[in-house]
Design goal:
Elements (H helix, E strand, L loop, with lengths): L1 E10 L2 E10 L10 E7 L4 E4 L1 H9 L3 E2 L1 H9 L16 H7 L4 H51 L4 H8 L1 H4 L1
Parallel strand pairs: 1-5
Antiparallel strand pairs: 1-2, 2-3, 3-4
């Protein structure tokens, strides 16, 4: 598939672009089929080979969004411009729009649900800390028991039962 797009050229901070026809899979600065013009964003100078651009569009070449808008602006094609930038988040739009009573009630309920979820997550985070404390206490108890066993001398019966395996069974 062929595509018409911009390929950056020029020095650092002084960008200029070539308008190129190339395979979609090739890097924008890579091998091209034909150079169809140039664009300087600083001076807004556009040089287009309109006949060749229309020819390749008729043959099925795709346009990048920026290239499409540039051709619409210069009158080469007559279509609606494409949206290139992403729209702002919906939260900002909601804050600017007037809110009816029903919408405000539902948004309050949503906020309460979110707060409940956050509280549950906070409680779940606290529970592991309590578990760690309980585990540490158990470890201390076991260590204390082991120390008591070591300190107390074994009786003769305990020694005899350890030596004879029949007594254990």
């Amino acid at each position: 598939m062929l595509t018409i797009r911009l390929a950056r050229t020029g020095k650092r901070n002084t960008a200029q672009f070539k308008i190129m026809l190339q395979e979609r899979t090739v890097a924008p600065g890579g091998r091209h089929v034909e150079i169809l013009g140039s664009y300087n964003p600083h001076s807004k100078a556009v040089v287009l080979n309109a006949d060749r651009i229309k020819y390749w569009i008729e043959r099925g070449a795709f346009l990048s969004d920026t290239m499409h808008n540039l051709l619409v602006k210069n009158g080469v094609i007559s279509e609606k411009k494409r949206i290139v930038k992403l729209p702002k988040k919906a939260v900002v739009a909601e804050a600017e729009a007037p809110v009816s009573n029903q919408e405000s009630v539902s948004s309050e309920q949503e906020k309460e649900k979110k707060e409940d979820v956050l509280l549950e997550k906070a409680e779940e985070a606290v529970v592991p800390e309590k578990k760690e404390e309980a585990l540490a206490e158990k470890v201390e108890e076991v260590v204390a028991e082991k120390k008591e066993e070591i300190v107390t001398p074994k009786t003769e019966e305990a020694v005899v039962t350890e030596k004879t395996p029949e007594a254990k069974a």
